[in-house]
UniProtKB/TrEMBL annotation:
It comes from Usitatibacter palustris. GO terms for molecular function: phosphoribosylanthranilate isomerase activity. The gene is trpF. It holds the Pfam family PRAI. This is N-(5'-phosphoribosyl)anthranilate isomerase. Pathway: Amino-acid biosynthesis; L-tryptophan biosynthesis; L-tryptophan from chorismate: step 3/5.
Length: 211
């Protein structure tokens, strides 16, 4: 079931971080997780050595999340050997068996295209810690800045929901009230331009979500 926002604190993930200062700012403001993108075509992609510096700098109880998109198994293992990731996030067409083979907890992203069946997705990925719901934009795997119709999210999912897609400081409060997600995830909504994080927007987003 989708958690009731009246009885739980919505967690916050700031994704696509490439600078240690931005990660530490987000953690100081109250973010629960930092997303590190290991997908070369993305403007938010980061190399393992730099990602390791960021992950090592995070304070206790702030998670480092590694995002992959249809990566070869060897690539994921290479990153895991170099970066102390707490959670994996898969944004491509990965199967349940693929996601489960790395011995790490994982989140499965679902692009909200018209024909998607979230109840079936939750059944297929029953070992996922959550389903991350993002807008469907042909040719894009995330970070589009687009929102989707939140009313399409059923209330009887067996996995927690992480809400993503088109969130920013102006609408995250309404999203939390209407959807009651376990967590919210933002990337483009805290950027000054594609791939460049804006400290003021990071702060505003986290404070709006907390409020």
């Amino acid at each position: 079931m989708v958690p009731d926002p009246k009885i739980q604190r919505t967690r916050i993930k700031i994704c696509g971080i490439r600078e240690k200062a931005h990660a530490l700012l987000a953690a100081t403001e109250g973010a629960d997780a930092i997303g590190l993108v290991f997908h070369a075509p993305s403007p938010r992609a980061i190399e393992p050595a730099r990602a390791a510096e960021i992950a090592d700098a995070l304070p206790p109880f702030v998670m480092a999340v590694g995002l992959f998109v249809d990566a070869p198994e060897a690539r994921v293992r290479e990153v895991l050997a170099a970066v102390p990731l707490d959670l994996l996030q898969f944004h491509g067409d990965e199967s349940p068996s693929y996601c489960e083979q790395f011995g790490k907890p994982y989140v499965r992203a679902v692009r909200m295209e018209e024909r998607v069946n979230l109840v079936e997705c939750a059944r297929m990925f029953s070992r996922a810690k959550a389903l991350l719901l993002d807008a469907h934009v042909p040719g894009e795997k995330g970070g589009t800045g687009r929102a989707f119709d939140w009313s399409r999210i059923p209330r009887n999912l067996s996995r927690p929901v992480i809400l993503s897609g088109g969130l920013d400081a102006a609408n995250v409060g309404r999203a939390i009230r209407e959807v009651g997600p376990w967590a919210v995830d933002v990337s483009s909504g805290v950027e000054s331009e594609r791939g460049v994080k804006d400290p003021a927007k990071i702060t505003a987003f986290i404070r709006s979500a907390r409020a």
